[in-house]
Amino acid sequence: MPLIRFTDGRSFDPATGEVRAGAAVTRLEPQPAALLTLLVDRAGTVVSHGEIVRHLWPTGTHVDFKAGVHYAVRQVRMAFDERAAEGRVIETLPRRGYRLHAAALATLACDPAPVVPPATTRTSARGWQRRVTLALVAAVVVAAVAVIERRPNDHHDRMVALLSAVHDLVY
Question: Which candidate, 17, 49, 10, places its Cα nearest to that of 32?
Answer without folding.
Answer: 17
